[in-house]
Structures are given as structure tokens and as C-alpha cells.
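pasting for the record
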Amino acid sequence: PARDVLRARAGEPLRRAQMREDADRLHRFLVRRGFRLAEVEPAREEMRPGGGTVDLTWKVTRGPVVELALTGAERRTLERRGLLPFLGDSGHDEALLVQSVEQIRAWYQGRGHYDVAVEAREERDGERLVIHLAIEPGPRATLEEVEFEGNEEFPDERLARLLQTSPRRLLSPGSGRLVDQELNDDLSNLRSFYALSGHDRARVGPPRVERRDGGLRLVIPIVEGPRRSVAEVRLEGQLSALDAGTLVAGLPLAAGGPYHRLLLESSVDQIRSRLEEKGHRSTLVSHQVEWGGDGTVARVTFRVLEGERSTADAIVVRGNTRTDAGVIRRFLGLGFGDPISTGKLLDVQRRLYALGVFSRVSVGTGGAGAGAADHEVLVEVEEGKTRSVAYGAGWDSESGARGLLRLAESNLGGRLITLQLDALVSQKEEVYRLLAMQPYLGPWPVDVRAQVYREFEDRASFTVFRRGVQLGLRKAFGSLSAALAWDYRIVELESDEADEVIPRESRDARVASVTPFLIWDRRDDPIEPTRGWSVQGSVEQAFRAFAADAEFTKLFAQGTGYLNLRDLGVIALSARGGQLIPIAQPEDPALEPIDAVPAAELFYAGGRTTHRAFERDLLGIPGETLAIEEGRDPVPRGGGLLALLNAEWRFPIAGPVGGTVFVDGGNVWREAGDFDARQARWGAGVGVRYLSPIGPLRAEIGWKLEREPWESAYVWFVSLGNPF
């Protein structure tokens, strides 16, 4: 019964917020039972004699039962696609019914049924309101050609690039489909393009759709009309902050270019903005337009009154109880005598928030200082919590059960220094790391990192212990990042394999190296990218210093790209390669030059992030980078050359659940001179993905396309995160 959905109970304190929520609950209760026109009025209070208690009454108008009579489609399919919004919890709404009709038509047209017919009508029958929704998809038709008529100034190719509607093209999802909603948007884009090109009287459309042999031909008629252009742009007024010629040259409204009101207004805004950046916050800009005899050629004059220049007379930092004020000033990007602008103050606020230690930042100007145009810049901050504890547990198919513990202080000594202790332990590896990081190096905004670490790793052919120290610098330039790292590590390798598999002198080493990194990341999302690309490269130079005995050069590069297929998912591509160049020669003349490089520093492949048709480290060339002995498991030897290619189609299934089809290829060669593309190993596989808040959870299985007798047919993985 409806009474059971109420939270209000006799004898409990009266809560008016709860009364309003109960009215909403009653309404949803009735809607879900088909009474979509039901109305529930706010509860009426009636005081009982003697006071202290009240009776609550909700007046309910139930209305008719609303039913849907659907023909031509499955209701479940439409609901799953969100095409029946009028059946939501808000009740019946004629506007939502109209919206449903348009959405259904667009959905069918997007699948090739351009002539789909969708009709909705209501029929009242006593206590029932029946909504008849009839859908006739009609035959499929492919858009084969898009043509323009009447365009003279711009060729068809230029106009076609402005349209989302396009004929069928390979690897272009959505092409070959004609959707009225998208076409209307395209026509609006064309009109805006012509207007901003000076043809403000241009007429675009109405379009014609011609049918022929199951295909469609779209014709868009255009009447360009006269073009309005700019003959001259002048700037009047006394300018002290900027050169007038330079300022005019950069305006959207330019001599010889098109004229449009929006270009004129944008030019005014740009002049005002450029002068405000120089401190002239009260700049006044007016304009005058003189037309030629035929009304198509304009002479534009901008009149500028700069006003007084605002500068920072003093910078006051308040609210910091732990953070050193001098450290805060490093990141303001604003000093004594610098010009003040709204954009500059917002930039100061953004810089301080980016440090991650302030929960609130306010930046403004105070009263005037010694000069009428000099101002005091007031920076008020509120410090947030800087100590944190993070922990977690998980499992993956390669390392087994694993746990993480992280203790961090992000503002040590009030100097914005982060001190962090990490412990990552699993059945196959252990990593203990103490890091110290700060976002500046002296007066420069360069990230500085120092860490001491100890690692244990159980690999397929050996176990390795590492302990060392690393110092690093990093600087970001937008999407481009550059880094430099110095590392000194002691590597101890234990193996039960014979010396001919892993020579004794390749097992233990002291490595001192310097590595520059370069990363260019243009992806739209670092966790689950759907478009864009990224490239990265590094050159590690190991040298003999501080008792180090390893000497080599290690090159590595990787590129990834993502093609968004819209409803069909994403194509992800990756190519990576690396080369090890030994500099020192092995002590044993019978060994190969690559054996002078510590075995733990060589390239290995196979596993969930490299080649998913092979178990971890077991991708290799028999007799070279993979030791094969009858009756025993293969033993990876590692190599000096790595080449891998990966292609993956990530497609949606339902909500956060998706699927994967992938192809991985490549191999590990002993040295660069041994490279032979015919020795590349290929594999293919499928998987299921669940997009969690911390990244995709993957379960995948990969098959070898041409397997050797000693190899398993397939390998399966369960892991968190993308493979590349």
C-alpha cells in the first residue's frame, strides 16, 4: 500500500523536510504503478486538541493508468537506448513524448533507416490513457554523395569538411548515414561559416535528398550573396603599453579580410584584453565603421583610452599557518611593480590550487598605495590536511595477491616538500620506497624528486634484488614534459640456471646512470583515453663511476594512438622499441658483447602489458633469447633489441562493461644485428573490461597464431589498467 512508502511515523518528531520527501515518494510510487498523471499535494497539518501532536494528510489525485502500446520495435531495446524518456520517474509529460519521437527517429536514421516513420498519439479510455507509438523503420539506405550547388568562393572539399554528415568512408564511424538532426546542425555551421567569411546574407538550403538504387544523394543549395570586406583598420589614441601596429596586425578584423559584427566585437575584446594584461584595467574602446559606396567595403576605426596602469605596489599573503610565505611567493608569478589584470589574478589562484595543499585560495586587490594606480595584492589561503594514509589490496594473474600501504606528508616543514613512504608487496615482488618531492628548484618551477628504494622481483628465470638511490628533475611545458634522472643501484641476481644461460658476470652489478626523458601526451584522458596520441622516449647512459661496473646505452621509445569510433568504441594502437648498446666488453672472451650488460637490465617481453599471447618474459627466439631444453620449461635470456606492435578494439557492451579484441606482435632479439622481421611472433585474443573509478579491470585470453611444440595454446590474464 501507498502508506508503506512514507517515512513519517506516528509518535515521531515532526520533520517538514521529511514531509516534502514523503510527497515525492508517494508520487514516484504511483508513477511506477502506471499512474503517470498522478498529483500529490504537500502534506496538510491538523493540530489535535491539547496541542503537541498533528495529523498529516497528503491529498492524492491518482488519475488514469497510462499504458504504452508499441508497434514496430521492442520496448526493451528502446528503453536500453534511453529513447523513452516520457516513461521516467517524473511522470507523463507531452514534451517528453515529443522528445522521444525525435530521438527514436534520429536513432533509426543513424542506423541507415532515413525514411523511418514514427507516430505518437494518445487515446483516453475510461480510467486508461493509452499512448500509441508506431514505428515503421523502412528500408536501409546509404548516403553515397554530398554535393553543393551555387558555391563559388569556396570549393566543395572545403565546405564538406564543415559537415558531420558525409558519404560512406572507410574507418569513419557514422559516415554514410543521413540524420535530420545532424543535417540541421550542419546547415547552421555552413551559415555561420559564410557569415564569418563576409557573406552575412548568404542562404544555405533547404537541402534536397534524392533516392537512387538504395542509395541517397544529398544536395545543399547555396546562394552566397555579396561579400562584405574590410579595406582598412585604424587605431586612434595614445598607447604606451603596446605598439599600435603590432596590436592591429593581430586583430580578428583585418584589412583585406571579411567583415562581420562578431569579428568587430572580438577585436574590441582583444584590444581591451591585451591592454588589461599590461595593467590598464579601465581601458575604454569604441569603434566607428564607414562603408563604401556599394555598402560592401568597410573602414574601421578603433578609439582607445588606456586609463591609468595598475601595478602591484605590495603583495600580502595571509592565512598560512604552516606554509612559509616566501615559498608561496615563488608560485605567484607576480612580483612588485608587475601589471595587475583580472586574468593575472586568476592565474595566481590557479597556481596556488595546483600545489595541492590549500583548500581555499582567494586573490584580490586592496586599497591604493603611494600612487593612485598602485595596488596591494592580497592573497588569502586556507591550508588543508597534508597528512594521508592510503592502503589497498588486490590480485592479478601475474603477481598474485598484492597489498599497498602509503604514508605521506605533503607540506613538510611548511616548504611544500612531500615525504612519502610506499610499500607494495605481492607474491612475486616487493617494493619499498622513500620519496621526497618538491615543486621548485631554487627560483625555478622545476619538480625535484629524490628517492631511496629496495626491490625484490621473482622473474621467470631469476630473482633479482635491487637497492639504490635516484635523483630527478622534471619540467612540464603544456602537454610536453622533459625529465632528467640520475640513478645508482646495486643489482643482485640469483638463478638456478646454468652459466651458459645467464653468465656469472651478468648476474650482479653496480649501475650508475643518467637518463633524459621526453613525454608528449595529447590524450583526452590519462586513465581511459578515447582519442589523441602520446609519444615518449628515453636514453639511459650507464657509466663507470662511484665503483659502478656496468657501462651501456639503453634506448627506448613508444608511441600510442586512439581512434574514436563513437558508439562502436575505440581503436587503440601502440608501437614500442628499444635497443641496448654495450660499451664495455665481457671479461670472458667466449661471451657475446651483450653479456657485458647485467641480465636484469636486458629487454624481456611477454605478459599482460607487452604480448598477451605469451606468459611473462617468455617471448623470445629459441636458442637466442629463449633457452630451450627438452623436458624443461623455457628459460628467458633477455635481449638487446625489442620491437612490439599492439592493436586493440575496445567496444561497449552494457554500461561500464565492455569487450576487447586485440592483436599483439613482435619479439626480443639478442642484438640489433640479429633483427629479422620474419621472426616476429603474433597472437590474438579477446577480453572483457569493467571500467572502475580507478581504471579498467581486465580479463583477457590470448592465443598464439603459430605456436611451437613446447608452447601452450593460450594464456589468460586478469589485471587492472590498460596494457598500453
